[in-house]
Amino acid sequence: MSASTPHQEIRALACRYAQSVDRRDWVQLAGLFTEDAVVEGPGFTMPGREAIVAGMRQIEQYRATQHHVHNQLVEVEGAAANAETYCVANHIYARDGVEHKLDWGIRYQDNLVFQDGKWLFSRRTLLLDWAQDLPLKG
């Protein structure tokens, strides 16, 4: 069996991010970022690993979430990389006694570094391309 490539490892990192958020595994999530990493998106900036975990805990307002990782393009140059990762994020919550599903079409613009033998996010920018919020049936 051959060793994994940086592209495969970066893809796995994006999948571990989705898994961490959906499972509310904040310890695993923290381990995916450099200490001074920044996560930003529409109307928010979370500077540093502790702020990222604290900010991501806001997702606990939803009964359940599923982040589906799709297309990913990666450019590696030595111990640094840039990636664009497409994601559809589903959020289940109740409003006025009715369950709703909020869906987001996301493109993550990522800067990554190879540090301590693994790839880590140093910057993750969330671009929201579209959203829909509908009652959940079934």
Brief descriptors of the model:
six-stranded mixed beta sheet, globular, Steroid_delta5-4_isomerase, SnoaL-like, NTF2-like_dom_sf, about 140 residues, Nuclear transport factor 2 family protein, Nuclear Transport Factor 2, Chain: A, about 20% helix
CATH fold node name: Nuclear Transport Factor 2, Chain: A
Strand arrangement, major sheet: 2-1-6-5-4-3
How much helicity do the residues have? 10-25%
* Biggest beta-sheet profile: 6 strands, mixed
Low-confidence stretches: none
DSSP strand content: over 45%
Gyration radius from CA atoms, angstroms? 16 Å
What structural category characterises the helix and strand content? alpha+beta
Domain count: the total is 1
Q: So, CATH architecture? A: Roll
Helical stretch tally = 3
What order do the helices and strands come in, and which of them pair?
Layout: H1 6-23, H2 26-30, E1 33-41, E2 44-47, H3 49-56, E3 64-77, E4 80-95, E5 98-115, E6 118-135
Parallel strand pairs: 1-6
Antiparallel strand pairs: 1-2, 3-4, 4-5, 5-6
InterPro entries: NTF2-like_dom_sf, SnoaL-like, Steroid_delta5-4_isomerase
Protein name: Nuclear transport factor 2 family protein
Organism: Ralstonia soli
